[in-house]
């Protein structure tokens, strides 16, 4: 509908011998939200980085309002009206929220900051987007979802004509996503800007986009207005014709476990909590079952997993692992007890960036492939490669993992978790940034692990659909409380789940109010 | 901004500043020394102590800027020597002393700028670049002088090193002024924010549009400037330019002062206040040991242990305000004691 | 440059405090000096405090400030360097404290310019010490022999440079003799060992090494041995501690740091007691020859 | 995994090792020195050069481990002094020399372990901890000896410093053996992988089950061990324990050697091979300047510039294999030249 605002023509990018973009041409129009989709490693992030001036292309031109432009840096792009949020969070953790919001466009005269004005504007912005922050918090102390919102706000607040968002919603919860979708559409219309969004979640694509471009292996395979496309078209463009029908949308169909197996819980958690942390959490986890953990952002789901893995202490309550008292002092401790944890903060603590995918996967299990501390490298690599292949990593698995695409990094993390052959698997946002094709495979994979090897799995996800797909039962976390009451997925839908999460916490009657007893 | 006036600024919760711990340690150490010697607690000794610590304080100031962006400046001690020789050479060639000082300070800033430029253009680790300029500066001092001292004959120059304003020695006044300016620069200006951003995450700062070249060059120029000021002060105190002045502990002490005060070697964290407290702590300990006649054999040991203990307590306070320190040890033993370290 | 006689109040106490400022204790030379100050100071009825500057002028200046704080009665100053030494002497003079320098003389012109004064200098004639070794070299190798000499020294310090000057002066008397190299051993045996080896590598025809400090001599001797040149290269030096003159080590000149300290203490005593003291006391160096071992206290 | 055998490992493409660039620079520098003096290119000078560089090589070895986990060991030079004095003191007290050596090496490892433990228990920055133990070690050396040297009378001990195996000096052989062991440790063992992981991303390593305490303590113990070996060698070369041995340029040169060789000060990146090339480069330049009769005044300048140029070229090669270096400058000017730095 609108005028062509930004056109990328014949963009080519090579890394070493690999060509990751083969002459991509896309057009972004004013007043439109443009969806950019494709499998992991298709080249979406690379394309956005080229447009934003963060990466230098090997060929092709970018035109802004008909004028060829070549930004030397994202800041140059920003001053020309092209703002961007990259896939990896790039806030400065040592600075405050306000400082981040205004970074490199501070208000002030003669180099002296106008702190009051910035603070006031920041509070306005934060309030507008419903973030319960003052602006003076250090970013390091914020949970992932809030950090992501801050990046988005910071891009939207710039008076940009083109806004590039690379997977902005991965850490957000439903409410925030709905609000964001609404805001994006409004901004696009009102300000007549072009918004480009990379996203793997189809419902979001269909909710927000006017136009969709799909990339496969660095080539445009689909390009058209959303109205002319069906879900099936989109899925097919990502996963390919053959697999499209088979893989999408089906719940993995392995049987629930018989109730009697649950009589022997792998892990029993009874009213654990800590000052300034969890309040009181109780639940049972049985071998071979997949238990979902749902709650609003900040309800303490991640904290619970970290506590189970020995990353945060608990001061009251108790945990029992296969009948024995379990009180992990460190992750190593937890690992030795058969637990494995997949972190939601991929970049912060998920992997060693200089190690390749294989080496990252081998890291926790080296002991299995060593004699007197000497690694039998070939053997270890073979084991890792088998799992990595089954997860279909694209890109050079011998390159430092930090250089792979976000989704492929996530696959490597999953492979690492699986390789540890845990008896209890703790997954925090396991499919963050993973494309639709691989996602259902991963779901099936998780179910297979549980059902065939008897692994007990605890899954945290902000995507209700994911929990409903992969879990047997779901428990709800609310404000640091969890009663352990189970909800069978067959009886649930996303709406019910959200309603449950919003209900006020019910005190855990089985173990008394742990907090009170401690006082 | 019209909305600015309407929106109430949220009241900032008062919180203990990061430097409280190390300031407490400084007071404790000072009190201990005072208890041990009546000479320590005279006002004049307090001034002597600050006077002797002023140059290290200046270097620590410059070093703080450099460390904040994740760099390091090894050339700072050698620059004292070079710049000290330079200022006396200029005066020996008839340049009047205020002009000689100005030229030397400019030269110091230029030396720093060169460091920053090489680091930024060639992306060579700052350790290597400043290691190399350290060599160049210390050689230059020797080459210029042929290892001889250059006497300063313009007696007015002495005021910089030996004068006093309202009883406070000029070097201390100079340090105080520059420390306040530096503190304001870091906390109140755009450049200051960009310095923290660069040190916090260089790549993220670049993506956000921070001019890394400018911040890098500026911090090294500031460090070079501080070193040249140190060279001028040392020369004015000795009234002779000497090519090995400043090549002793100055470099280590200046970095240590900043780190003691909470400046991270990895960048992005720390404040001028902390570095200054660190510098005063080092000055108190060095001076105190001389006043208390601690044998020179024992001095490095004593200074090392005092600094270590002070930083242990400070680190402790930052991490677990409240819990007694014995608990840290117990927690450590709980984690590792019962099991074999494997 | 004698002004009014300085005599602080504190000298009237029963056991007045005197301050001794020394450059370092990494050279046995200063260890001997320090011990002598402590011993003779006590005998003369003084309390003695010794400060070691670790070869830093600015640190020595701080230590002098500390002496002023402690209201010492007199200071014996062995300056790190003679130029900056003037500032220290001046600071003391201004505080009314008499200064006795030893071993390293303080630059007269600077002193005058700054308005300081010194009661007495005690020390060796550095140039003379080098000259004696130069003469010993010529005597040992013979008038006709071709002499190519290198110096293991510390070109950044004045006293060592003066010794080198003396040595060069002596050799210049012989047209067959040249001094080709000066390397920096930093008055440390390990560094001297390295640089001496490298100097010999670069100058294979070199047949004399003059080490202008004791620690330098220790390194030079090991360097010559390590290269298997014990019969080709002769070493002349300022004496190393506890080291017999044997093998390539042909001669050394020694100073008596303990004696300088002793004289200094006696002069301070005399000065306080109102006696006149000589402005300059130059002591000759002792010379040791092949086969001898310098007794303790006879040091380079 | 039964399927493991079936899956072929991807053939790893042969690639230029990271150290190629700096090795090239080393060869160029060496060739230049050789061209300037025939004395440089003798075999015996090659051995002297390596012999004189052996101790710095050993320190660089230990420093490499410490740097790899993102730490730093400032105590390494002072440990040479302390351990050199210790071994001669033990022998003076009648301990036979092989036993004295063993005890000293153990003491060095213990010193390092103490560093590691303090760092790990109290989470104090390594810079502060090792700054403090540097002070302690150098004081201990002075206190033990009263600043006097301790002569070694057991002549067998000399073999460690002065002996040769097949014409190669023992210290060089010792360095070579330990360098190979260190290389194997880093590339072939679990511990080595954990060291890289700790330096690469400490938190991710911890979550993957890496024992941070063990790796931290081990690397500092290795550094302490290397320093004590250096102390033993220096003492055996001089046959006298001297309390200031090792307090010269050793510390800086050892860190510089590692950094020249591509070891990152921020951890996680670098190899033993690189550090050894760096150490040899420093040895060549130090040796070459004395062989070529470069005035001592000029030496720091020359070594600084050679190191800087070598690292600039090396950094350059790593980043843009192919493009000529003039292009970097031009690109920089293009980025910044036309605009004001603002
Ligand atoms: N710096 C780099 N060096 C080498 N290869 C790179 C680099 N950055 C990206 N690549 C490669 O380029 C390809 C495209 O990556 P890109 O990040 O654009 O994928 P993407 O479509 O965003 O994937 P995802 O959905 O997983 O985020 C990948 O194969 C990746 O490994
Ligand atoms: N890696 C971490 N280590 C320690 N504390 C953290 C870490 N990440 C976040 N926190 C702290 O824990 C609090 C909760 O963050 P987190 O993201 O875990 O939220 P949560 O309460 O578990 O919410 P959610 O249910 O959305 O996961 C944050 O306020 C933050 O200060
Ligand atoms: Mg991407
Ligand atoms: Mg979470």
Describe this structure in words.
The complex is a heterotetramer, with 1 copy of chain A (519 residues), 2 copies of chain B (342 residues) and 1 copy of chain C (300 residues). Chain A is of the alpha/beta class. Chain A folds into 3 domains: 4-229, Rossmann fold; 241-338 and 422-519, Rossmann fold; 350-420, no CATH class. Chain A has a 6-stranded mixed beta sheet, sandwiched between helices. In chain A, a hairpin with a 6-residue loop joins strand 13 (267-273) and strand 14. Chain B is an all-alpha fold and 342 residues long. Chain B has a single domain (22-28, 42-314), classed as ABC transporter involved in vitamin B12 uptake, BtuC. Chain B contains 15 helices and 4 strands. Chain B has helices at residues 2-6, 20-36, 43-68, 76-92, 97-122, 126-145, 158-162, 170-188, 190-200, 202-208, 212-238, 250-260, 272-291, 296-319, 325-336; strands spanning 150-151, 164-165, 168-169, 240-241. In chain B, the strands form 2 sheets. Chain B has a two-stranded antiparallel sheet. Chain C is α/β, with parallel strands linked by helices and 300 residues long. Helix content of chain C is 41%, strand content 21%. Chain C has a 6-stranded parallel beta sheet with strand order 2-1-3-4-5-11, with helices on both faces. At the B-D interface, helix 5, helix 6, helix 11, helix 12 and helix 14 of B face helix 4, helix 5, helix 10, helix 11 and helix 13 of D. The complex binds adenosine-5'-triphosphate (2 copies) and magnesium ion (2 copies). The site of one magnesium ion has 3 residues of chain A, from helix 10. The site of one adenosine-5'-triphosphate has 12 residues of chain A, from helix 5 and helix 10.
